[in-house]
Amino acid sequence: TLNASRLPASLDVKFNVAKLDMGKLSRAIHHKDRFDGGVDVDFALTSNGSSESELINNLNGNANVGGEIRFNAKVQEVLLGAVAGLAGKTLDKYIGQITGKKGYDSGGDLNAAINVALQRFANRNNPISGNVTIRNGVATSNNLRIVGKQAKVDTNFTASLPAWTLDATTNVFLDDNPKEAYLIVTNKGVLDSPNLVIDRNPKYAGANQPQQNPAQPQDQSQPQPQDPPKKKKFSPLDLFKKK
Hints:
By secondary structure, the protein is an alpha+beta fold. It has five helices and eleven strands. Strands 1, 2, 3, 4, 5, 6, 7, 8, 9, 10 and 11 form an eleven-stranded antiparallel beta sheet that branches. A hairpin with a 2-residue loop joins strand 6 (125-135) and strand 7 (138-148). The termini are far apart. Mean pLDDT is 75; it is low at 79-107, 208-218 and 231-243.
């Protein structure tokens, strides 16, 4: 409740929502069914102040999140995701649809990593859990987690309502190597339009690239060309080029 009968006004809000419809939230925010599911939210907020700015600056409380969330991907996006490195353009478009961002830098190996991550979370109910603390209008969390198929996503963030800024880091871990982040996603900048950067852990670089056959020893009895032509390195993206 907000008591504004006298200044400074006071705010005291507590509520528990079971199975919050994430599909409706997705349509309200993005006008598309990017995600759905039922998420449980339990939070308590207090504040006081003589203006909207003071109420925001003095906002304090806690929130707990649980339930399940589902990220929707088209069939062709999932099928293409099964072929590492071959769906760069499609995934560029898909990630843009999810985040609302366009034009981020992505290479073939990074696209391969995004494909792998996509398969672990898309079109399935993923358990979500975590806690958020709000102090003087600044919300922080260091334990937001989404569990996919043999993978998990951990997010740490700081969101300042007074400054209207966001600094968030999301690490994608695969059960194959649970101690090393597979993908690292950062959102930093203006709260409602942060700069998105997706990086792959350098330790995984090249893991999904096709192996080249070792060069065979040449028959020394045959005449050798003076300047042998260099063999062009195969790229999976060559499959998409017109003949």
